[in-house]
Design a protein that fits this description.
Elements (H helix, E strand, L loop, with lengths): L16 H11 L1 H11 L2 H23 L4 H5 L3 H12 L6 H13 L15 H12 L1 H4 L10 H9 L13 H7 L5 H4 L13 H17 L6 H16 L12 H5 L4 H8 L10 H21 L6 H18 L19
Helix pairs in contact: 1-5, 1-12, 2-12, 3-5, 3-6, 5-6, 5-7, 6-7, 7-17, 12-15, 13-15, 13-16, 16-17
Function: Part of a membrane-bound complex that couples electron transfer with translocation of ions across the membrane.
Subcellular location: Cell inner membrane
Keywords: Cell inner membrane, Cell membrane, Electron transport, Flavoprotein, FMN, Membrane, Phosphoprotein, Translocase, Transmembrane, Transmembrane helix, Transport
Length: 342
């Protein structure tokens, strides 16, 4: 009997890698618009420079590994890594900072493991953590919304001039972590705070939420990982929320709309390669990220912990997969007790 010849789902049809990557890039547009409105063209400069670096290093390493360069460059995975990384970096980042972050993401986060589909860690988060640990001052120098001039920003990118006075300020997560005496009402007078979260980050998080819902509508991933992360972060912040006291770590709404929460929930933890594979596993994976994000924000050494939380859970993904493997279709569950002789 002749069997029908069916093409693999990853090579043609609606699940093509290139189509998936293009949809992810399209979903980042609301966030890009929000960041550009708040900080000027600094984010666009980051995007262009990071994309060029990512494609360049991807092509170089593919050639060294004797792989077809054009074929793998067209899948769009390197471009997605560059865009996600550029959106996480402060606008008007020095050119060398973006270079190191993007090169680390492509080289150490992706190609050294064999390329797309074989990386155990999220490449964008690898690049982000490398520069966050190595250059904490530059990575925490976010400009004041609507207060950045293009000329001064370009000079800062190229290293021609140092950062102008008053160009940056502490983020809301920084202010919340360092606060020891002010009540929440008093702390909210700080210009770093907006209505519910950090000034500017509220709009950016809502923009990435819109992009994430678009991807959910297109069924590019299941709801389990993002819902697990956001639910766990909400629960943790609710349990340890001390109202308006000076030792409060912030309300659930504050944590949902500050930092890189929505970018992480819909664009990072949903990575099909470095995350868990089953639906239950994705739910556990996302919940683990949410718990770790809150732990790092509240008691860790960094104001935002999305990148560290994701990488730690990437290490746990194989174990999660082992214990959450779905039952093979057509087979009964193994019985625990066996009679003698059976």
């Amino acid at each position: 009997m002749a069997l029908p010849r069916i093409t693999s789902p990853h090579s043609t049809g609606s699940n093509r890698t290139q189509r998936v990557m293009l949809l992810v890039l399209a979903a980042t547009l609301p966030g890009i618009v929000a960041l550009t409105w708040l900080y000027g063209p600094g984010t666009l400069i980051n995007l262009c420079w990071a994309s060029a670096v990512a494609l360049g290093f991807e092509a170089l390493l593919l050639k060294v590994r004797q792989r077809p360069v054009q074929f793998f460059l067209r899948d769009g995975s390197a471009l997605v890594t560059a865009v996600l990384l550029a959106l996480a970096l402060p606008p008007y980042s020095p050119w060398w900072l973006t270079l190191i972050a993007t090169a680390s993401a492509i080289v150490f986060g992706k190609q050294l493991y064999g390329g797309l589909g074989q990386n155990p860690f999220n490449p964008a988060m690898v690049g982000y953590v490398v520069v966050l640990i190595s250059f904490p001052v530059e990575m925490t120098s976010w400009p004041v919304p609507h207060g950045v001039g293009l000329g001064a920003g370009l000079q800062h990118i190229l290293g021609i001039a140092s950062m102008p006075d008053g160009w940056s300020q502490a983020t809301a997560l920084d202010a919340m972590k360092l606060n020891k005496s002010l009540t929440i009402e008093e702390l909210w007078a700080n210009p770093a705070f907006g209505h519910f979260g950090g000034i500017g980050s509220e709009v950016v998080n809502l923009a990435f939420l819109a992009g994430g819902l678009f991807l959910l509508h297109k069924r590019l991933f299941s709801w389990h990982a993002p819902v697990g992360m956001l639910a766990a972060l909400t629960l943790m912040s609710l349990v340890f929320w001390n109202g308006s006291g000076s030792d409060s770590n912030g309300s659930p709404l504050f944590h949902l709309l500050s930092g890189a929460t929505m970018l992480g929930a819909f664009f990072i933890v949903t990575d099909p390669v470095s995350s868990a594979t089953s639906n239950l596993g994705r739910l556990i994976f996302g919940a683990g990220v949410g718990i770790l994000v809150y732990v790092i924000r509240a008691w860790g050494g960094y104001p935002d912990g999305v990148a560290f939380a994701v990488l730690l859970m990437n290490l746990s993904a194989p174990t999660i997969d082992y214990y959450t493997r779905p039952r093979t279709y057509g087979h009964r569950k193994a019985e625990r007790g066996f009679k003698m002789g059976e």
